Amino acid sequence: MDLPTILVKIAGAILLGWTIFSIAKHIRQKRAARGQHESQSVVEQILNNILLYLWLAFMLAFSSGMILNN
């Protein structure tokens, strides 16, 4: 295996780990904020969550692709 392939796999593993950590952090924050009052409107929360979940899904696919396709 050549050096660029190894570097891409390492970068993919780092991105995957960071993404999984971000997902776990988001879930912990959502659980902690269940009883608290939110300052955002419902529509704003929905749009922010859609954007966040799309970004996290993209990062999972991208980092997994870096690891598996090289």
Please outline the helices and strands.
Elements: H1 3-32, H2 42-68
Helix pairs in contact: 1-2
Number of helices: 2
Main sheet properties: none
Overall residue-averaged pLDDT value: 90
Nearest-angstrom radius of gyration? 16 Å
Element-level helix/strand string: HH
Percent of residues in beta strands? under 5%
**What structural category arises from helix and sheet content?**
mainly alpha
Protein architecture, described:
The protein is an all-alpha fold. 81% of the residues lie in helices and 0% in strands. Helix 1 (3-32) runs antiparallel to helix 2. The radius of gyration is 16 Å and the shape is elongated. The relative contact order is 0.18.
Notable characteristics:
mainly alpha; single chain
Short précis:
Helices cover about 80% and strands about 0% of the residues. The protein has 2 helices and no strands.
